[in-house]
Structure prediction request, 93 residues.
Amino acid sequence: GRGVSEVTVVELGPRDGLQNEAVTLTTGQRVALVRALASTGLRRIEAGAFVHPTRVPQMAGSDDVCRLSLRDAVVRERGVQLSALVPNLKGLE
Prediction:
């Protein structure tokens, strides 16, 4: 059979890794995490989730995390692609 010629790694830590933690990080701390991950060479990072903050308080402000992370020099210079979980139409809105 044919072998795999390319593998894409998507880092989920800023979303999946934080959403079940008891402590909620600030927007600045989450942006710093995205920046630190980008500085390791990761090119695709899931930075948050667009869910209701009463359901997953750790993901509140994901829009700000994405916006501010995209302004970060390390993220921009390395061409990092950010994504976010959008579980339903309300989250998309």
Q: What stands out?
A: The longest helix spans residues 27-39. The longest strand covers residues 44-49.
